[in-house]
């Protein structure tokens, strides 16, 4: 019930946001219990119609531990969402160290667990793990997102690994309003160029 309420509230907020910026997308987290609900995909389809949303503006996040423990439910949900043009991400990827789940899940994003990113600049083990995750994603035609990117040194390494997206306080600290305009992207590019030389 909580997840359904969150989805409805997110869809309403996304509809309002699309009045200003049509290209906005939302990532929405789901619990393992909700994933086991066979009626959920149909309900999500009805909510997309109700709020007049395009499926491609919604990405549902499933924790790696849930995907590993509920492979059939995760696969069925992923296929159902992709039939609605929604996307699916596996979050906290690398924490449970279950890379084999990618073999049977046709997801759109891998979100690398923050514990592997936090001390990336100083941990050789984490560097090797993150590099292998990015390579795995690339070979599986999956986009890769690094969570908890909080410092420029980490960003430089991720850039060298050809990460697709970053998420963290270096870009923008969490806030209540959807007001970030991403003008600082040029500043981030300057950080990369400066530290890489």
Spatial strand sequence of the major β-sheet = 1-2-3-4-5-6
* Count, helices: 9
- Shape category: globular
**Alpha-carbon distance between the termini?**
52 Å
Provide the gyration radius in Å: 17 Å
Relative strand content:
5-15%
Question: How would you sum up the major sheet?
Answer: 6 strands, parallel
Give the low-confidence spans: none
DSSP helix fraction: 40-55%
Order of helices and strands: HEHHEHHEEHHEHEH
User: Can you give the mean pLDDT?
Assistant: 87
The total strand number stands at 6
Structural class: alpha/beta
Can you put this structure into words, describing what you see?
The chain has 197 residues and is of the alpha/beta class. The chain is built from nine helices and six strands. A six-stranded parallel β-sheet has the order 1-2-3-4-5-6. Helix 8 (152-160) crosses helix 9. It is globular and about 50 Å long. The termini are far apart.
SSE topology:
Elements lengths: L1 H17 L7 E4 L2 H4 L4 H11 L7 E6 H6 L1 H13 L3 E7 L15 E4 L1 H4 L6 H16 L3 E4 L5 H9 L4 E2 L18 H12 L1
Parallel strand pairs: 1-2, 2-3, 3-4, 4-5, 5-6
Helix pairs in contact: 8-9
Using brief descriptors, characterize the structure shown.
197 residues; single chain; 9 helices; alpha/beta
Can you give me a brief rundown of this structure?
By secondary structure, the protein is α/β, with parallel strands linked by helices. The chain has helices at residues 2-18, 32-35, 40-50, 64-69, 71-83, 114-117, 124-139, 152-160, 185-196, and strands at residues 26-29, 58-63, 87-93, 109-112, 143-146, 165-166.
